[in-house]
Specification:
Chain lengths: 264, 305
């Protein structure tokens, strides 16, 4: 069962071998014969995966943070209650629909209802769809992080005279966000893996590359092995990045949810 | 320490055994033996490949190639003197070759192009239909040839040979267009229908089939030059000359006594289920030629002509 990794050096057009395996990616360093090789294509597809995942993660973090915080507001005024209902609805809608169905909704259905979106390239629609889907999960985790803090923290903030906004900004969120960094790590890694659904709406990312290149070269094992390794590298890199973030933001003794000294 | 060492030994031997099993060549039990033993044959079929092979819903499949395969199987029943149950297995462009290679599918009756790369992995029966890759556009778009596609969006299906053809064409003619990929033929046609793509490049029969089943078939037209000529054939496992001979014999018989021409008429020029629409693809000279001189030449030889 000899694995022929040489196909990555093949040009995608002429099926001949490009010198040095890089046709167009590094035009000044490796002077290929100007044709894209499968390796070039793999790298460009990887770039698309990173872009989709990156934009989606940004949207998801921003929206998820807001929605999750809104869900924990005290029900003290009608406005707060309205915000809480909106946030709950958001989470329920985006959690209960499968991610692929959401992608199709955003790509085929919603541009019919909101014609401006028809002009948007598939990349933005898919990032929005993926971002909103993940934002509902992040909202839940942020809410869990906030609720894991002892109630005494909110009460103490109120006793000090901080407004709700100030208590969230200075007391609750700094601790809650540090608590939820591990679940956020899994969500970030999930978003990289879920970006593979973008193939269904013709974003040229790794999964689409895998399907098409496997068809063209008939070397499924090598292609899928390479794509798997790329996904693993990306997910591991994200993992290490979040670990670094956690280390950098750690304040010893800051998070003490189970500390009996924190008033309950 | 003792338990960890024995665990290590067990896992190592387990790994070695798995390695040995994986490196053993898969036994190419002839397809005839497989069919006689199980009294059944698995036919690979497509969900929406024009008039060649498509689903009527509810697990029923029909089409030009499905009919030819049914004739092949009834001839096999006569040869093996035993009734053979047909099991239908829906396949996609991505998994059709691996499924034939690993034995899940015995005979694939879809819309597979016979080309040299694929002949390394599977065998093809004699060509029953020669496909011409064309362009489908909306009738009111005014596009009549590929040169006018410069700067426009062109849809094609992932995992088909058309993607590579478009790429070669772009390179050769210098026309620059945006490629949009549908995940299957119905999806790519939807891209054209909803104006996310200005053109859909695919085999003529698939274009005609999709247009015939569209909501407003009159809105679409198949235009432009032939981008590539490809022989479409029934796929079977490699290195099984006995089975290939049987399949080829049936098909050559159909060609000689004119049945294949009648089948073509029935599927491509007359109304077909489920909506009783007419595909309307006239018999091309290439297909007539392939029937007159049965062969399993790959697409590369057609391109040389």
């Amino acid at each position: 069962m000899a694995l022929e990794f040489g196909i990555f050096c093949k040009s995608t057009i002429e099926e001949e071998f490009a010198p040095k395996c890089f046709g167009t990616t590094f035009p000044n360093v490796f002077d290929g014969n100007g044709d894209t090789t499968y390796l070039d294509w793999l790298l460009s597809a990887w770039g698309w995966t990173l872009s989709v995942a990156g934009l989606a993660l940004l949207i998801a973090l921003l929206v998820g943070l807001v929605v999750g915080t809104l869900r924990t507001l005290p029900e003290s005024s009608w406005f707060n209650r309205l915000l809480i209902t909106l946030a709950n609805t958001w989470v329920e809608i985006f959690r209960n629909i499968p991610v692929l169905v959401q992608i199709f909704l955003w790509y085929h259905v919603i541009p019919m209802l909101v014609p401006i979106l028809k002009g948007l390239p598939a990349y933005f629609l898919v990032s929005i769809a993926l971002g909103f889907y993940t934002s509902s999960r992040i909202a839940e985790q942020v809410k869990a992080g906030i609720q894991s803090l002892p109630k005494g923290q909110t009460l103490a903030a109120m006793a000090l005279g901080l407004t709700t906004t100030q208590s969230y900004r200075f007391v609750i969120l700094p601790m809650a966000l540090r608590i939820v960094i591990p679940p956020l790590t899994s969500e970030s890694m999930n978003i990289i893996k879920n970006s593979s659904v973008a193939f269904a709406v013709s974003v040229s990312e790794l999964t689409l590359f895998a399907m098409q290149a496997q068809e063209e070269t008939s070397k499924g094992i090598e292609i899928y092995l390479a794509v798997t390794i790329m996904y693993m590298i990306t997910a591991l890199a994200m993992n290490r990045l979040m670990a670094w973030v956690e280390k950098k933001t750690r304040v010893p003794g800051f998070i003490a949810p189970n500390n009996p000294a924190g008033a309950h | 320490m003792k338990t960890s060492l024995s665990f290590f030994k067990i896992s190592l031997s387990g790994l070695l055994i798995t390695n040995l099993l994986m490196s053993m060549p898969s036994f190419a039990a002839g397809t005839f033996d497989k069919i006689s033993a199980s009294k059944s044959i698995t036919m690979g079929v497509r969900d929406s490949s024009g008039a060649l092979s498509y689903t009527l819903g509810d697990g029923k499949y029909t089409g030009y190639h499905v009919e030819i395969c049914k004739r092949i199987i009834s001839d096999l029943e006569k040869t093996l003197k035993t009734p053979i149950q047909i099991k239908y297995q829906a396949v996609t462009s991505q998994n059709r070759i691996p499924l034939v290679q690993n034995g899940t599918v015995d005979i694939e009756c879809g819309s597979t192009t016979n080309n040299a790369t694929r002949q390394k992995d599977v065998s093809f029966a004699v060509t029953t239909y020669v496909e011409e890759v064309r362009i489908a556009v909306k009738a009111n778009s005014g596009i009549t040839s590929i040169a006018q596609l410069n700067g426009k969006k062109v849809a094609t299906t992932t995992g088909t040979t058309s993607v590579q053809i478009l790429r070669k064409n772009e390179r050769a003619t210098g026309v620059n267009f945006d490629e949009v990929f549908g995940k299957d033929h119905a999806d790519s046609f939807l891209l054209l229908e909803s104006d996310r793509a200005d053109a859909f490049v695919m085999d003529g029969s698939i274009l005609a089939g999709n247009i015939a089943m569209a909501k407003n078939p009159k809105d679409f037209r198949i235009v432009g030059e032939v981008l590539s000529v490809e022989p479409i054939a029934i796929m079977i496992r490699k290195d099984d000359p006995q089975f290939k001979a049987a399949v080829d014999n049936t098909i050559k018989g159909l060609m000689k006594d004119g049945s294949i021409a009648k089948m073509y008429q029935q599927w491509f020029l007359e109304p077909i289920p489920p909506k009783n629409t007419r595909v309307g693809l006239e018999l091309s000279a290439n297909t007539k030629e392939a029937w007159a001189n049965p062969n399993d030449k790959p697409a590369e030889e057609y391109a040389k002509k």
